[in-house]
Amino acid sequence: MRFLVLTDLHQKRSCLGWINRVIREEAPDFTLFLGDITDIGTTDDAIEILESIDSEIYAIPGNCDPLDMPAGIAAVAHDMHGRRVSLGAYELVGLGGSNITIFGTPFELEEEEIYSLLEPVSSEGMILMTHTPSYGILDNIPGGISVGSHSVRRIVDEFRPILALSGHIHEDRGVVEKGGTVFCNPGPAKDGYCAMVTISDGVPTIEMMGPLR
């Protein structure tokens, strides 16, 4: 299984060219989009962007996406907000939005809600896609402050996904392995970043890509 991971496009449509070029050249099985497709935009904006990407897409909203986006994108992408689907031998589990920020963005959730939405759909050894990262892992903003979700971290600790994908924190792009889980923030697509993930026999291998133009 091989797939492209995108996050934090923030409605920068000029990036669609390199995104589709990567898809043509790398031929991933599908694309995971971790949210912030828009920049405080509308669901129509999200639909327009998603249908311009030449790939099957599994998507979640980010904190800058509208609350009605999950239901609205069904015609152009698989809505993964609070959902689980089987992809071959693996379970893909998703949750969009973020924990509470200081910015008052449209799609923010209390920690209790994050856990209550994720726990029922989670499974041991899953592939987890969230917009907000686990607390303490790829969640540092300038100054070294952790702003990730305690509830996402709790889910990771309880269910031990093989792979935990997140975005949201533009400054903390990277790959980390901890407790048998590989964590990845591919970096913001608006700045030309993405990641290509290959999973073979339950082991993820990640190629970080960018900046691309």
What does this protein structure show overall?
- With 213 residues, the protein is α/β, with parallel strands linked by helices.
- It has a single domain, classed as Purple Acid Phosphatase, chain A, domain 2, CATH 3.60.21.
- It has helices at residues 16-26, 43-50, 69-72, 111-118, 150-159, and strands at 2-6, 30-33, 57-59, 78-79, 83-87, 90-95, 98-99, 108-109, 127-130, 140-141, 145-146, 163-165, 174-178, 181-185, 194-200, 203-209.
- A 6-stranded mixed beta sheet has the order 4-3-2-1-15-16, with no helix packed on it. A 6-stranded mixed beta sheet has the order 5-6-9-12-14-13, covered by helices on one side.
- It starts with a strand and ends with a strand.
List descriptors.
213 residues, 6-stranded mixed β-sheet, alpha/beta, 5 helices, Purple Acid Phosphatase, chain A, domain 2
Q: Strand order within the widest sheet?
A: 4-3-2-1-15-16
Measured between the Cα atoms of the first and last residue, the distance is 26 Å
**Mind telling me the CATH class?**
Alpha Beta
**How are helices and strands ordered from N to C?**
EHEHEHEEEEEHEEEHEEEEE
- Unreliable residue runs: none
Corresponding CATH superfamily: Metallo-dependent phosphatases
Structural class: alpha/beta
Tally the structural domains: 1
- Rg calc: 15 Å
What average pLDDT do the residues reach?
A: 98
Number of β-strand runs: 16
CATH architecture: 4-Layer Sandwich
What is the CATH topology descriptor?
Purple Acid Phosphatase, chain A, domain 2
Helix content: 10-25%
Envelope shape: globular
What's the number of helices?
5
Question: Into which percentage range does the β-strand content fall?
Answer: 25-35%
Outline the biggest β-sheet.
Answer: 6 strands, mixed
